[in-house]
Amino acid sequence: MNKKINLFLIITIFSFWVLMPVLSLAQGGNLQDPPPAPITTVQQILDLIDKVLTWFARIFWIFAIGAVFYSAFLFLTASGNPERVKKAKNQLLYAVIAMAIGILAWGAPKLIENVLGGGSTPNTPNNPPPLEDGPIIGDSLWDPGVSG
Known about the structure:
Elements lengths: L1 H24 L16 H36 L4 H35 L32
């Protein structure tokens, strides 16, 4: 009798597991108009990549700061034990190296872009703003004070 109840429960659970997706499709709705695609341009792809990398950077910095706190904890709990102090120093060294790599990863592309002249550059004497279309002052064709 106990085996029959167990078999009945197993079959019931399995049938619900199989039939639940079918029941969820019975909800109806407008299936003729699919939702618009979330990404339609190259700029949206670049924005998505930028967002993912920004989140990755935030998580990286959280772990890097956590590694510094962990090394501080190791220093505090070393109690003068040379092995544990050495382990704490190595942990701090690795955390500092990771932070330096993180800073370089953030700054290197901007530095390379500025050195190679990509992106926008500020208006400097060597790079004046573009001239507007229109008459140039002092030009004899446009200056009514000059007769030609």
